[in-house]
Recover the amino acids of this structure.
DNA sequence: AGAGAAAGCGGAGGGCCCTCCGCTGAGACC
DNA sequence: GGTCTCAGCGGAGGGCCCTCCGCTTTCTCT
């Protein structure tokens, strides 16, 4: 995802390529092809996906796939990270539109929906999350940042606790997804997220009736998709 | 332990029931050897364990291992289930000794500690939990039953919510373990269990200062980044 | 005791994972 | 353009997973 290495202004070749060409063109293209094929394959497949089939479909050798993505997790994370922007970006959008505690629940739902579409890679994603191999520096941090923004806003408004570490909430969410997002336990995911919400409200502010709509003045189930 | 149907060890009693085929003595011994070897190997190993090495160490062919345990999960669950009794049994013991909400937290801690010792099989356990392949009929149910006992007791005492499904709490716990029990995030596990406790208290009964910036009771010395 | 049946055994085999390494050709420099 | 060089390529190879099937051993019945 990043181009760390910096070739010292190799720009002056015949055709200037926007000033920065650290990687060979063909290598970059291979990488992109691999991600594209992987995304499609992961989305289509239900169970495990063979990396060799991805390499084959992308028209490269298995060695090339492993050159670009040293582990299965690396490839999965690349696909996952590439699509995560929508989720993280929606945090501030939601905060503009709703009070923090409503925005939080809504954001959780969106994240859950996002994860639910990752069928073909859930297993790997799961293993990677759990072991910290995935998302420690990159992805998880982005999630935690988005989450932290909402939590801080709610803390200021007094509708969310101020004494929780956003990282703990991230872990909690991943845990909920890990334990429910695999099968068809979609409603259970919703109930568990409700429990998480309950844990995040300040002592006095819990809404007694649990089922139904949490309301809070704005309709528990948001109108948006 | 499962032991689907244990015919009286009619290894070679003169008369055996004809409707009911006893398991051959040697087959049973093989099964037990496999579980014993697997338990030792899983406990010793840190990462993934080769099933072929288990079969080899048990002195049987790989085919025999797969005959007894058709999937890796089946073997892991057999080992796991065999040691689960201590945990489930402790539920009623704890209820005798403590008020329900204290017993609940204590029980969670014990379960967490138990899972934490399962190092060599966490990955498989995780995948099995998440997919429902493990523990759906057997193990998970035992956990849920133990948990339900504590929850019911707390509900009656008014110190725990009455409107939560024990199965949801089981899923929540598994989620917490799934997302933290892998690495050394032991203290995070504690904090997350604290959040779960908060979610399970009835609206009025939350203890305001207890957890938070500092820690829950014992040694939450986690530095927040 | 002897024989027949089938439960149970073991390992070959095919597929996937990931590593390693010799070769090719893109790009830099002349 | 021509040459040099190493980034990048591809696939062979070793290990593990799991299946399949012919052979062995145990148990039952006579």
């Amino acid at each position: 995802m990043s181009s760390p290495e910096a070739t010292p202004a190799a720009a002056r070749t015949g055709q200037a390529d926007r000033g920065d060409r650290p990687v060979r063109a063909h290598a970059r293209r291979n990488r992109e092809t691999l991600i594209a094929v992987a995304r499609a394959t992961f989305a289509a497949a239900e169970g495990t996906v063979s990396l060799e089939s991805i390499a084959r479909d992308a028209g490269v050798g298995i060695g090339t796939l492993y050159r670009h993505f040293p582990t299965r997790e690396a490839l999965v994370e690349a696909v996952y990270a590439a699509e995560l922007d929508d989720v993280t970006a929606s945090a501030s959008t939601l905060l503009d539109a709703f009070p923090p505690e409503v925005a939080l629940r809504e954001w959780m739902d969106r994240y859950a929906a996002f994860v639910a579409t990752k069928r073909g890679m859930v297993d790997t994603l799961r293993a990677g999350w759990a072991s910290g191999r995935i998302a420690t520096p990159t992805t998880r941090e982005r999630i935690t940042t988005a989450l932290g923004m909402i939590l801080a806003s709610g803390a200021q408004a007094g509708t969310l606790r101020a004494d929780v570490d956003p990282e703990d909430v991230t872990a909690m969410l991943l845990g909920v997804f890990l334990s429910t997002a695999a099968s068809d336990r979609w409603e259970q995911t919703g109930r568990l997220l409700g429990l998480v919400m309950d844990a995040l409200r300040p002592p006095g502010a819990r809404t007694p009736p649990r089922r139904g709509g949490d309301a809070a003045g704005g309709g528990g189930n948001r109108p948006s998709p």
Summary: Chain B has two domains: 27-70, 72-203. Residues 12, 16, 18, 21-22, 24-27, 48, 50-53, 62-63, 66, 70-72 of chain B lie near DNA strand D (CB under 10 Å from a C1').
